Each structure stands twice: as C-alpha cells, then as structure tokens.
UniProtKB/TrEMBL annotation:
Belongs to the zinc-associated anti-sigma factor (ZAS) superfamily. Anti-sigma-W factor family. Pfam families: zf-HC2. It comes from Paenibacillus rhizovicinus. The chain crosses the membrane at residues 86-105. Residues 3-37 form the Putative zinc-finger domain. Gene3D superfamilies: Anti-sigma factor, zinc-finger domain. This is Anti-sigma-W factor RsiW. Keywords: Membrane, Transmembrane, Transmembrane helix. InterPro entries: Anti_sigma_zinc_sf (IPR041916), Znf_put (IPR027383).
C-alpha cells in the first residue's frame, strides 16, 4: 500500500471504520513506514485534543464581538466611486470613435471589398446552379 492512500485513510483507520482487509493493509504499512507511523500518531493526538473534555468552555457568545470587529474594518468596496458607469461607457465609446476615425476608412474599405468578393462568389454559384437546373449552359 502506498503512503498517499494510507495517509488519506488514516482517520478512518483510527476510527476503525474501514473494511477489515483495508485495516490489515494499513496496519502492515504502519509497521514498515516511519513517516506514516508519525502521521498516525499526529492524527491520534489531534483526535485526543479534540475530544478532551478538559478544554475550557467558552462562557460568552463570541458572535457580537466578532461582528463588532468586522464592522470596524474598512470596507473593501468604495461607496463613492469616482467614475459613473455611464461616464466609463461614454469614454470607451469616444475612444473607439477616435480609433475608427483615424483607422476606420482603411478598415471599412477592406471590409467592403471582402464583402463584395463574397457576394460576387455567391452570385456566381447561384447562377451556375440555376443554369445547371434549367439545362442552359
């Protein structure tokens, strides 16, 4: 058995909630592997600490204190944004318009010629199809 699968199932092994065959495989691995044995001891120690009734109980409810600390922290969001979203859109539109004005004519001419070539090819293919259907060459 590999260390990864042993360490992944070590908590279930400690609770004795695994299938008996898996329990035996992990037991055999723990006898051979020092690292996994140390991992198992750490799991047992954490379980002991977790279940220890000697831990002091909290006498007060911590929720109000935690919420007060959260309210004292500065908000990650700025309530008064310097830029209105409409102003941002107007600024982006103005920039796009400027780019189009300076480079738009070349772009527009290229697009029109490309569309014209596509339309011409389409018209030729439709004409050829109609001629082949009607039998006229």
């Amino acid at each position: 058995m590999k260390c990864d699968s042993v360490q992944m199932n070590i908590a279930s092994y400690a609770d004795r909630s695994l299938h008996p065959i898996n329990m035996e495989e992990i037991k055999a691995h723990l006898e051979e592997c020092e690292a996994c044995r140390a991992w198992y001891q750490d799991v047992l120690e954490l379980e002991r600490i977790w279940n220890d009734p000697a831990l002091p109980a909290l006498e007060e409810d911590l929720t109000p204190a935690v919420m007060a600390m959260i309210n004292r922290r500065p908000s990650p969001y700025r309530p008064h944004n310097r830029f209105n979203p409409l102003l941002k859109m107007a600024l982006a539109s103005a920039c796009a318009l400027l780019v189009f004005i300076y480079n738009g004519a070349e772009f527009f001419d290229a697009a029109v010629s490309h569309i014209g070539m596509i339309n011409e090819q389409f018209a030729q293919s439709i004409s050829a199809m109609l001629h082949s259907v009607s039998g006229n060459s």
